[in-house]
Write a structure and sequence with these properties.
Helix content: 10-25%
Strand content: over 45%
Number of helices: 2
CATH superfamily: Lipid/polyisoprenoid-binding, YceI-like
Low-confidence stretches: 9-19
Keywords: Signal
Pfam family, one: YceI
Shape: elongated
InterPro entries: Lipid/polyisoprenoid-bd_YceI, TTHA0802/YceI-like_sf
Protein name: YceI family protein
Number of domains: 1
Length: 195
């Protein structure tokens, strides 16, 4: 009986130790740029503009069913106006706005994911025009049975003036009147990533 008990105890100890010495590593999911979308809205006193911008690449780090990190690169040359205005698209790409000739990409690096279940708060560092600032926003994230991760962030508010984009800002030009453009623009992101 003592021998049997000792054998069981030894087996349990070996299993417990192996669980600590061989922890599961987080799994990296690669963003599927063809199935992911980013839309933008910019507002001004007399109306608004909206359009799209493409995700160039990205990845999510997943531990079990929890997203713990990620990195994303946005193709700034892909800015499109929903109304098809080549003039507006050209202005957004110019130095007054995103300066895409010098800064062809922007990045977002996740530093923290808080919350439980699928409703989370994602925090990270957003880099636009070579300037990096912290940014947090609510998101819905799910690890799906088909081996994909889906994420949805319906309203990410970005203050463009923090990235030295001052064109048409009342914060810098008092006499601009009804030609003022809001300092904040909004992004909506739908992300699909797979192993």
């Amino acid at each position: 009986m003592k021998l049997k008990f000792s054998s069981i105890f030894l087996l349990v100890a070996v299993v417990a130790l192996s669980a600590f010495t061989n922890p599961k590593k987080p799994v990296t999911y690669t963003a599927d740029a063809s199935k992911s979308t980013i839309t933008w809205v910019g507002k001004k006193v007399t109306g608004s503009h909206n359009g799209t911008i493409d995700l160039k690449s990205g990845s999510l780090n997943v531990d079990g069913k929890k997203v713990i990190g990620g990195t994303f690169t946005i193709d700034m040359n892909s800015i499109k106006d929903a109304d098809g205005s080549a003039k507006l698209e050209g202005h957004l790409k110019a130095d007054d706005f995103f300066g895409v000739a010098k800064f062809p990409t922007s990045t977002f690096v996740i530093t923290k994911v808080a919350g439980s279940g699928t409703s989370l708060v994602v925090s990270g560092n957003l880099t636009i025009k070579g300037i990096t600032k912290p940014l947090s926003f609510p998101a819905t994230v799910a690890v799906n049975g088909d081996g994909t991760v889906s994420a949805l962030a319906g309203k990410i508010t970005v203050d463009r003036t923090k990235y030295d984009i001052r064109y048409g800002s009342k914060s810098f030009f008092d006499s601009i009147g009804d030609k003022a453009i809001d300092d904040n623009f909004e992004l909506s992101v739908k992300l699909v990533a797979k192993k």
